[in-house]
Amino acid sequence: MTQKNIQLEIRGAVAVVRLTRGAKRNALSDGLILALRDLFENLPATVRAAVLDGEGEHFCAGLDLSELKERDAGQGLHHSRMWHAALERVQYGPVPVVAALHGAVVGGGLELASACHIRVADESTFYALPEGSRGIFVGGGGSVRIPKLIGVARMTDMMLTGRVYNAADGERAGFAQYLVPTGTAFDKAMELAIRVAENAPLTNYALMHALPRIAEQPADQGFLTEALMAAIAQSAPEAKSRVRAFLDGKAAKVKKA
After folding, report:
1. What is the pTM of this model?
2. What is the pLDDT, as a whole number, of residue 1?
3. Total of domains in the chain
4. Could you give the residue numbers annotated as active site?
5. CATH number of the domain that 238 lies in?
6. Under 8 Å CB-to-CB from 139, ≥6 apart: which residues?
7. Which of 25, 162, 177, 250 could disulfide-pair with 245, CB 3.0 to 4.6 Å?
8. Does residue 143 sit within a domain?
9. In the 8-state DSSP scheme, what is residue 71?
C-alpha cells in the first residue's frame, strides 16, 4: 500500500513503513504525520512487528518548515497535541517498532525515532535539535521522550548550543541501541523485527505498554503492575506451550553472544 509520502509493505509478520519524501529529506508535513497515525492504527492483524525507514539518504530531517505557520497560542497547542496523538500510535500502538536510522535524524525526525522501541543507526547517522536556534521549542513529544534516552542535560545542551551528535557519539549517548556500517541499518532492523515478531504477543504488549509505565510509577505501584502483567502473560496458552517446550528440552537455551 502506498499513500502520498508514505509506503506500507508487508513482509510476513513484519510491516515495513517507509517515509517517501526523499526529495525533501523526509521532512514531516502535517499530512505525513496524520498518515503515520492512520497507518499504525490500521495495521493488519497478522503483523507482529514493524520497521520504520526513510527513503533516500536521510531518515527524517524534521519538521517541513514550509508548513510552519503563524499560529496563536490555542492553535499552536492543538497542533502540538495532534503530533502527540500521532506519535503515541507509534509508541503505544499494536506492535513493537524498530527504526532504521541513517543520515539526518533531526528535530521532529528525532522525536519520531524516540517514539520507536528499538533504534538501529548506521554510521552516516547524525542527531540534532535545531529548534533552539530557530526560536521555537520541540512540540512532538521530544521533551518527554528524548531525555529518557539521553538525559535532560544532553538535550538542554543540544538545544542551547546546536550541538550535533555523530553516529558513534550518539550510540554512546543513548540515541540508538545498535550501530552498524553505512547502508545496513534497514537490514539489521529487519533482522531484529523478525526476531521480535516471534515473541508471544502478550509479552511484546507488556514491554510496549506496561514497562514504560512501570518505570514512571512509585516502586510499590510498579511491583503491583508488574505482578498483574506477569500473571496475565503467563496465563496465555502460547506462554504455557513455550515453557513446556523448554522444560521438555525442545527450546533453545540462552548462549553467550
Report:
1. 0.93
2. 58
3. 2
4. 111, 131
5. 1.10.12.10
6. 76, 79, 80, 83
7. 250
8. yes
9. -
